[in-house]
Each structure stands twice: as structure tokens, then as C-alpha cells.
Specification:
Elements (H helix, E strand, L loop, with lengths): L16 E4 L2 H7 L4 H9 L17 E10 L4 E3 L5 E2 L12 E2 L2 E2 L2 H4 L2 H11 L11 E12 L18 E10 L1 E3 L2 E4 L5 E5 L7 E5 L4 E4 L2 E3 L5 E12 L3
Parallel strand pairs: 2-6
Antiparallel strand pairs: 1-12, 2-3, 2-7, 4-5, 7-15, 8-12, 8-15, 9-14, 10-11, 10-13
The structure holds fe (ii) ion.
Fe (ii) ion binds next to loops.
GO molecular function: dioxygenase activity
Protein name: 2OG-Fe dioxygenase family protein
Pfam families: 2OG-Fe_Oxy_2
Amino acid sequence: MPDALPAIPGAVSRPPFVHFGPGPLADALAGVPEAEVTEFLGSWDDLPGDAHLGTEKPYRFRRYGKFRLRSRGLAPLPHAPFFQDASVNRVNGGVARLFAPLHPSVAAGEPLRRVVLALLDRLPGPRAGIDTCGVHQIRVVATVNAEGHPAPEGVHRDGHCYVAQVLIRRQDVRGAESCLYDPERRPVHRAVLTAPLETIILDDRRVLHGVSPVRPASGAATGVRDMLLVDFLGGS
Ligand SMILES: [Fe+2]
């Protein structure tokens, strides 16, 4: 039974996703003092464990923040739990998940502002009505004894309008193939993100997505995959 995805006026003729290399976001970060970019990228080293995994030891670490989109910037919204409806997230849906907030230096920093605005310029569909974004910093760690699951809910929607998936770091990792699916769950795009700042932006109303498990590369004890996810939504 196909998932019911709402029709998006004016969107039918446009591909439901874009996938681009590091160039656009590297360009967006050009001109930002190197120390600020280093601090931004280094902030993935300080993410608390995700307490909602149901595992004894977390394999996923994360922070979250929500912003109102302004013409040239981001206005932070009060920190609040992240909520997905049970109809879109079979594992964590219906649960208000309180994640640690973004570091103030990340939330108010020039790198995040520039990256989000660059993503907003490249949405795979109409931008009308998009006034809010959610920012997730996520690290998934895999060991030889425990693989990491970027998407434990399997093939799914997030329940937003658009979702940007930006690779920050991929170290000693095997797997983690990103896949997009049409409403009949037929694959329409497969990719392994390998270059830092390589990005997929998908229309969450027109495609579903999933990511295969993260495993350590051959000979490595641990693999690490850091992602920046940016949810774009409207009227919330
Ligand atoms: Fe997702």
C-alpha cells in the first residue's frame, strides 16, 4: 500500500531531491574566519548521547535547535522537545524527545547561518510558506560489536517539508548508504556520502528516505559518521 503523500502544487515537474558535492557549502563558508569554521566542525566532538535509543550504550549522539527563518539570518526559538507523529516515525513517533540544545556559539555562529541560507537557496521545490527550520547535529558511532543506525525507523518520512542531509565527517566507516524512495517504496536515488559538505536535500512530502547501518571499515575498531540535518517546515 503506497504511503499517502500530499500533492504539492507546482512541484510535480521538479525532481523531488537535489544531491550536490561540497562546492556550494564550501563557497558559503568561504570568507568566514577559519577559526570559526573549525569551531563549528569541531562541535560534533561534544554531542551528548541520544537517551531515546533504548540501547544500554548510545551509538548516536546529538544536539537540536529550532529557528525562525529571517531574510538573512536565523532567529532562535525557545528550546523544546523534538516531536514526530507516530504515523511518520514508527520507532520514536508520538514521543517528545528532549535533546540537548545547540551550543550558543553554534546556534549564533556565522557558519550555521551561511549553511542554512545556502541550503534554503537550493530546495528541490517551492519555498513559499517555509519559515522555520530545525537543526540537528548527529554523530553515529559503530564498533565491531555494535553497528550504528542512522535511521533505526527504516524507510520513512520525517514529517517536514524539506530535509537537508549534510555530511560533516565520515571516518573509518563502511555502509551508511543513503537511499530515497518514491511513494511505492521503489528506490529513486542511492548514494554514499563521502566528501565533507556533500549534501542531499529531499522533498519530504514526495519521497521517503532511509540509511543503511554504519559499520567500522575493515581493520578499524570504530567508525564515526557526523551529519548536519536541517528540517525545513512552515507555520509551526
Ligand atoms: Fe529521517
